[in-house]
Amino acid sequence: MINLIKKDFLLMKKYLVLMILLAFGIPLFLIWQAPSIMGFPAFLITVVFTVYIPLQSVSLAETKYPKTTALLCSTPYTRGAIVNARYVFFLILFIFCWFAYVILSFIVPKMDIISILDVIITFLIFSIVLGIYIPLQYKFGFEKMKYVLMILLFATTFLMPSIVKMLTHANINLDIFTSLSSPVRYAALITVIFIVILMSLSASIRTFQKKEL
Amino acid sequence: MNNVLEVSGLNKSYRTFQLKDISFTLPENCITGFIGINGAGKTTTIKNILGLAPKDSGIVKVFGKDIEKHERVIKDRIGIVLDEGAFYEELTISEMKSIIAPAYSRWNENEYKSFMERFDLNPQQKISTLSKGMRMKFSLVLALSHNADLLIMDEPTSGLDPLIRSQFMNILLEFMKKEGKSVFFSTHITSDLDKIADIIILINDGQIVFEEEKDTLLDTYKIVKGNPKELSDKTRKLFLSIQETAYGFTGIAKNITEIKSACKNILMEKPTIEDIMLGYIGGDNGDQSY
What we know:
The complex is a heterodimer of chains A (213) and B (290).
Chain A: H1 2-11, H2 16-33, H3 40-64, H4 66-74, H5 79-107, H6 116-140, H7 142-158, H8 160-169, H9 175-179, H10 182-210
Chain B: E1 3-13, E2 18-27, E3 31-35, H1 42-50, E4 57-62, E5 65-66, H2 71-75, E6 78-81, H3 93-100, H4 109-118, H5 132-144, E7 150-154, H6 162-176, E8 182-187, H7 191-196, E9 199-204, E10 207-213, H8 214-220, E11 222-226, H9 233-236, E12 239-244, E13 249-253, H10 256-262, E14 266-269, H11 273-281
Helix pairs in contact in B: 4-5
């Protein structure tokens, strides 16, 4: 599994520096240009733009070299392991974005440390978006899905923070949720994330297992 | 002799092509050539054997076990060489190896290094800069460095120059010197098999035409040449295919005794595997396409 995750990093090695620059550069740019959106929206934007490049580069490599996927599936690597590694790869990228954001918040005086709740909500949105996108890409291929990906990412970046803000300010009765203690609230959100990922993973594995290579 | 691969009743349908009830076996310690023209179904059969394309029906057993149920254990013992190498071209040889090698429980790093040196491959070289021959050599290095018992190769020599093809054949013969090794080798360049194959399987239009020991095959069939006046409708039917001009005919036939008694002044030559393949694929007896 580690080697399959490493494979995804190797496929995006050309863009590794750019990705690191984005993870650190986007929050710095936002604090300079749009300090009002620091916190959850800034972190979400950072995650989306940082992950977009690796997502596109690994998908493009697999589209360009379909026979290599066939070769991998001819080895003892199972198709399930290949899909699992892809999900872990994105999880690592998310953790890296968080890590970059935390480091910056220690260095840059104007930046506050992002709250755990904001990280979890961002991860929930990230899981839902990729959780829908990845199985669809396994089904239809990158070529057919690349425009959907662009729309999804831009919608997530520009609409999602507003939607979340709207929901926060709307008179939705969240008493049950807010009355919960923080650890229970986190646990509830993490459970939802876990379910989303498991459902997506299962759909991706089933789709990829049926795929003709 | 044990069978390393048993395919029975394999069916797979596409919109414009289908594999029809493919059945054959590969004995241990043999090089089996899987021949057929382009589009005959060789790659599709190999893909179905390896589970790269889900089959409609049929059973594939490797080393006596159903590949669907024992996929990892079986694939650990198979070395794969796919057409054109099938690598990520942006990676170096060393990076590609670092992805493939950990998949195998019996990976032998010393053997890998020794093959790399022997084939003059630089681990730091980018795959996109390798020639087709070097890619194929690298593919073979990966297939041979994990103590595989069965090599499955799909058109490995296609597009290679004669020198590399000859080196390739020698490596296969070297591989076969070890006990319990087998090779399944698809190709449309049948001359590669004349020297090294033990068994020949011919596939055409998604169906197995024959599975035969190479020596038996070459002894059974003959190229027959003679005067067209010797031919009648009855004798024409004895040929797999026949080519006629005003000055003579050349045909390929199996029923040599019958032909000898029907045609008195004929010349017989030993065919190549390609002659026999074209004899079958060229059409029914009496066809002019041989």
